[in-house]
Design brief:
This protein is α+β, with helices and mostly antiparallel strands and 137 residues long. Helices cover 26% and strands 21% of the residues. It has helices at residues 4-13, 39-44, 53-60, 76-86; strands spanning 16-17, 23-24, 27-34, 90-94, 99-102, 127-134.
Length: 137
């Protein structure tokens, strides 16, 4: 299913056109699969957690939001998001029931995601985190 916000993002990044007239964008992509219960499910177990999966995913990217105690817990995803946005990249976050995209400078700068992709998502276990960074070739 197409995502209008991502379509606009890629249109803005369009670097070259091939012989058929198709727009080309060169990206470095890294995906990580975590087969645990999923970030949203883990965040939902916190006493102050919202039950909406998109809200739980968004909260994962806020500094110090963590299901683990400790002074440095909950810093990794927020730092990752800031670094990826500084490179005008994006993060796609997919859990068992929801999906969110956090984009670079073409979208909002806070930790709010682009609207998740509507439709029926197949049930999966765990989380897939995809980082994509545009390459200047």
């Amino acid at each position: 299913m197409r995502h209008p916000d991502l379509d606009r993002y890629f249109d803005r990044l369009h670097q070259r056109t091939n012989k058929l007239g198709r727009k080309l964008v060169f990206m470095l992509e890294l995906s990580v699969l975590d087969t645990g219960p999923g970030f949203a499910a883990t965040m939902r177990q916190r006493p102050d957690a919202d039950t909406d999966d998109i809200q739980c995913i968004t909260e994962c990217f806020v500094d110090y939001a963590s299901s683990k105690p400790g002074p440095n817990s909950g810093l990794g995803l927020g730092r990752l998001l800031r670094q990826v946005r500084a490179l005008d990249g994006f993060i796609r976050f997919r859990t068992s029931t929801a999906e969110a995209v956090f984009a670079g400078s073409s979208a909002q700068r806070d930790s709010s995601p682009m609207p998740h992709i509507a439709g029926d998502l197949p049930k999966v276990v765990g989380t897939v985190l995809t980082i994509a960074i545009p390459l200047a070739l």
